[in-house]
Protein 1
Amino acid sequence: MRPTIARVALPVPLDKQFDYLIPSHLFPVVGGRVAVPFGPKTQIGIVTALVSESDFPIEQLKPIKHLIDLQPLWSKSLYQLLHWCSQFYQYPLGDTLFNALPSALRKGKEAEFQSLVEISLTPQGQDQLMAGVKKSAIKQAKALNLLQSGPLSIHALLDEEISHATIKALEEKNWIEKREKRPQIKAWSHQDVETDQFKPKLNEEQAIAIAAVNNHDGFGCFLLEGVTGSGKTEVYLNLIKPVLEQGKQALVLVPEIGLTPQTISRFEKRFNVGVDVVHSGLNDTERLNAWLSGRDKKAGIVIGTRSALLTPFANLGIIIVDEEHDSSYKQQDSLRYHARDVAIMRANKEGIPIVLGSATPALETLHNALNGKYHHLVLAKRAGSAVPTTNKVLDVKGLYLESGLSAPLIAEMRRHLNAGNQVMLFLNRRGFSPALMCHECGWIADCQRCDAYYTYHQNSREIRCHHCGSQKPVIHQCQGCGSTQLVTVGVGTEQLEHQLEQLFPDFKTIRIDRDSTRRKGSLAEALRAIRNNEYQILIGTQMLAKGHHFPNVTLVSLLDIDGSLYSSDFRASERLAQLFIQVAGRAGRESKPGEVILQTHHPEHALLHTLLNKSYHHFAVEALKERKIAALPPFSFLTLFRAEGTQSPIVEDFLRQVRLTLESHPLFDEHCMVLGPTPAPLAKRAGKSRWQLLLQTGMRSQMQKILTSAKPAIQMLPNAKKVRWSIDIEPQDLS
Ligand code: ADP
Ligand code: ZN
Ligand code: ZN
């Protein structure tokens, strides 16, 4: 019998689906979009089942308005993966499915290639530019100038602060024209997928790693643990080649696109196939096209950040997760998934290999490699001509620090700079100084809406709260005693920059952090200038640490790392070790030997010893032993409940009730523990009180079962609607 009712998932934060009648002339499919009435509005939904009975009286059901897709949007395996995500991460199915779609499809657009609109100069516009544009039309002149070097999309112009009105005015004068640009599609044949560019001869370790993956059938998870510059990317390229030759596609995940232009161009140059790049900077049309080109096999390789994971593929053959330890793979809001973990599940469902590459594997990943759950492949030597760095701990106890710099470090910098090399300094704190204090009474300027101090930004003459974003002009008088003796406390990147300009007037300094790279394109420009040797001193937050290849950097130093050695976050030491190795990988990648200096007040710290004198691997093995003793992940499984609201007692009470609900669950046994409710590390943000509760279980499946059956009860708690709360499965960040 033909089903009469369609069950529809809607993008609403509810753990349920909605039933609609199927009109006799419509034939909906599971996994396809439909338009349905929802309250006073029409909503786009996704059909999840076709049935003949409903829990609701038939006469109360409304009919589907129309169909958008006649075919399912996803393959069976990807559709199942999305269901798994919804269950595992305790996130409503409708929201999960919609999260996986490009926004054009969420809005109901056809799943078809869209042409991009490009704007270019007309001959008249060209003449006008030559003749000079009136002073009164600065914006128009700017637009014409931008277009002089070639056509641009509307979005690119909007990014440069050219308004729609300006574009319209220019169009009316006939100085510019709009043209449709069909997406470029490179057809690929399976025989000569590889271009005949220079390819290094593989070394033995690389050959072994490649053979191990190639000789494996079906699903398999491989950790490729290779020191920086050991040729991991070369391994990826060699693994992708046979996949493309079989007519299959490859998915490559990277932590941050803006930071890896060189890697992307290596893929593009190596293969005669379409390479699509997916990241958060794409506009709606570009994103839709990328999604379609994976699905319709227009792209052989899709490279992208976290969200590229859910790209559909006609025939996926391999997944590669580069820098698998990177915390940007974990989404911090809405569907809080970990792209690496979901990628492993995807490979499993598709029956294909997945390769996790890193010089500094996450402890969870390493644990699985050591216990045999994953295959462990090792590249121990740097490929090519690069030599390992020399690492030094610099004890700064009792030394005078000039904006955070010790005299021995300054001397060492001078030596490297005078030799014509570049020097790189890391300081993970932007702004001029993290606090502004009264010299007479000790009062510190603090944000009224958060439990936090204002950061002083000298360049913009402001104080800003880095937690709620509030900012105000810098104050000159203490609000406690009225004194005007306000002093800065601590050092941020801005201050370091000032200091270095004074210490080294003959060399040029550049700062890379979120403040200095706010404008689109400015990061790429800065990276280019650095590679061009236009700057000799590079300072930055960890933004600067990821994946850049600066052959002329020979000295790298980490400043102010002591906080991470004694942090309350159990992952802080792992992150510091990863940062250290990454940073060390920035030095001496070419023929010049590199040096890494770590300034610390705790040179005797055991972690630093193992890390510097042995290796990351040794450190990781030690750290795993500590995790085991403390029953921390990967030896237990965590779920963090976060809640916030204007009334602190209500928030706390809600989490206390959550605790009772969890503890009274039949599966809650002696391997389980609930910690809290405790105030969040930042107890107040933007005027809201914040509390948290941590559930720890011995097994992942146990955690799953407890949460799945406790969640409806939690949603029914009297205060559940009075506070904002969320569940973070396997949180990466406990704040
Ligand atoms: P990783 O991804 O581990 O940082 P890459 O694949 O980028 O390493 O390799 C680092 C450098 O060494 C690159 O310039 C690469 O071309 C070169 N390289 C890689 N493998 C070999 C090899 N087998 N022989 C010579 N050079 C190699
Ligand atoms: Zn604030
Ligand atoms: Zn004072």
Protein 2
Amino acid sequence: MRISDVLRDKGGRVVTVAPDLPVQDLLTELAEQRIGAAVVSGDGTAVDGIVSERDIVRALAVRGAAVLAEPVSAIATTRVFTIGADADIAEVERLMTEHRFRHVPVVTDGRLTGIVSIGDVVKKRITELEVEANALTGYITGERA
Ligand code: AMP
């Protein structure tokens, strides 16, 4: 199963934020969109960074509430691991496990075309297991699922 299969189900919409957006506004964006991370992008298509709830928590713990007035670029991760749409879903699982993050932007020809979260991966795997279990049950009982 490929990343493009995941994007076919969930769509390619990605929430991006400008590097100079205040952290306070980032909080609003994450809350309103019900997401845990946003891609930092100056033009909406290039991946300049990624910022997640964890970056906010860490910065708050170290610098206190003053961080809310700082730009997103002050707390974002700039070395971003991305994945291509043709990659196998196992590759994104490996990246998430190895580097302990839960979001991977999808980049096609240098442009941001989607994002895969650990929730998307788990959902896809559960569907896959259900289909497999139904097929096996059908095979054993002689009934078609
Ligand atoms: P997350 O688990 O996605 O909330 O992110 C945990 C930490 O990893 C945060 O510091 C994020 O900025 C960072 N992070 C999240 N996704 C990526 C990624 N694809 N590449 C590099 N760092 C990331």
